[in-house]
Amino acid sequence: MSDGRLLSQLVALVPGSEIVGGDTTVFDVTHDSRSAAEGTLFVAVVGMTSDGHDFVDDAISAGAPALVVEVAQSVDVPQLIVPSSRSALPVLAAAVHQHPSRRMDVVGVTGTNGKTTVTHLVEAIGRVAGKTTGVVGTVGARIAGAVVPVPRTTPEASDLQRLLADMAEAGVDLVAIEVSSHALALGRVEEVQFRVAAFTNLSQDHLDFHGDMDAYFAAKRSLFSKSRIERAVVCIDDAAGRWIASSSEVPTRTVAVDGPADVTAVDVRASLQSTSFTLEAAEGSIPVDLPLPGRFNLANALLAAGICLELGVTPAATSAGLGAVAPIPGRFERVEAGQVFSVFVDYAHTPAAVATIVDEVRTLAAGKVIAVVGAGGDRDREKRPLMGEAAARADVAIITSDNPRTEDPGAIAGSVAAGAEPSATEVILELDRRRAIRRALGSAEGDDVVLILGKGHEQGQEIDGEVSPFDDRTVAVEELAALAPSNGGGR
Q1: Smallest Cα–Cα separation from 403: which of 352, 464, 348, 353?
Q2: How far is Cα 405 from Cα 464, in angstroms, rounded to an integer?
Q3: Same domain, yes or no, for 149 and 206?
Q4: Per residue in 58-103, pLDDT tens?
Q5: Using CA atoms, how far apart are residues 449 and 294, in angstroms rounded to an integer?
Q6: Measured over all CA atoms, what is the biggest interatomic distance in the chain, rounded to whole angstroms?
């Protein structure tokens, strides 16, 4: 917890604000009344589905000594009245926690695909370089190796600033944060100072929130402002990356798998187990043995290397760190249960990600590629047939349910399947995800590869507002055990 700030000190940080009801000291900030406590300033944020002003009484009952509101409330605690509580939240949280991002090297990674892998690679390199590391992202947060749960890819500003303060207190000196488009659009990272910002790629996603690709890209590229970052590392394998690199306001290092860039790879040797290459950068030629397969992971590795080289990590530590990375949960994660064929679970949940992983495995596999694919409910409907079209690049596409949420699973899967036809691919519709996985595994043999896509690290499936336990990795192991010894399911 911070040393505390007076409300009268905070009012000057928010233009157009005023205090009513006196002064008090606050030691923490929250936007969630369920997290309110003694000494915690409650900020009533107006959200998309709820209004924090409806929960001020709950916050006060929990011990909150003061409120931040857009409209004065009939309560007996001091209130800071502001034009926008959402805009005030990151400013106040950073101030109360004494701007923790200024006390560490903070790396922000944005883009549609690859953020999780890049942040884990940066963490691995940092550890080899002798740094105490932190990670914040889709699969949770870690402080010096200790796991900390977080509710979303990029936490809300109050949670993020508290988490960064905890990291600084724990002696962390390098933090890698996944920066989502939602976080950028909603101001969650407004008061985070990034030493380096990195861009992976851009493809269709989250249009249910952003509306169109222009708005989605605008959110991503807003990170690359000299007011937010000191340096940038940008993958220029797509047009979006080339635009960001060409318009960057800060010193920028480019990386590319295809074509010339500041950081590239030569002598690439790829398999379903690993990727070896020589990394070419201004610092020299660096041999790398990456225990992750796929050209997309080659791009991720080049980006992570570029980030760490920008931070002054030695080429030797960069190479050793890339070689030491542990399997990343749900990111092209291999499932082993003694079967003779290969099985991977991946979080690929966009058309581009599905197409990329299927195409890559086709180049590495001697046998068939069998893909299990679905699409989430209550999300971008336009991408569903595109998901099917991408899945049809496999030899067999099994269309199933993902997280249907409040929608009809059959309608979602039907939209996905519609995109897979007509094609030469065998398309199978199986709504029950476990049975879909069983069918994929049961049809595989020899040199075939089964890809179970969409949910990755997730450990539940959301149907009609209820989340039931479901982990693709666990289910795959269970079904492989049930198949053994038929079809090479086990030995």
Answers
A1: 464
A2: 5
A3: yes
A4: 999 999 999 999 999 999 999 999 999 999 999 999 999 999 999 9
A5: 13
A6: 75
C-beta of residue 346 within 8 angstroms of C-beta of residue 333: yes
pLDDT tens by residue, 15-61: 999 999 999 999 999 999 999 999 999 999 998 788 999 999 999 99
Q: How many distinct structural domains can be found in the chain?
A: 3
Crossing angle for the helix pair 384-391 and 351-364, to the nearest 10 degrees: 0
- Radius of gyration, alpha carbons of the chain: 24
Is 140 strand, coil or helix?
strand
Helix ranges (H only) for 42-173 are 56-61, 85-96, 115-128, 157-169
Domain that holds residue 52: 5-84
> What pTM was computed for the model?
0.93
Q: Which of 297, 324, 351 corresponds to the end of one domain?
A: 324
Of 324, 355, 377, the residue that ends a domain is 324
Statement to judge: residues 208 and 347 lie in one domain: no
Decide: residue 266, CB within 10 A, 0-12 exposed, 13-18 middle, 19+ buried. Answer: exposed
Contact assessment for residue 198 and residue 118, using Cβ atoms and an 8 Å cutoff: yes
CATH of the domain at 347: 3.90.190.20
Residue found under tokens 């542990």: 326
Domain match, 59 and 140 both: no
Helical axes 115-128 vs 315-324, angle rounded to 10°: 120
377 falls within a domain: yes
Contact of 5 with 95, CB cutoff 8 Å? yes
Sign for the CA dihedral angle at 401, 402, 403, 404 comes to: negative
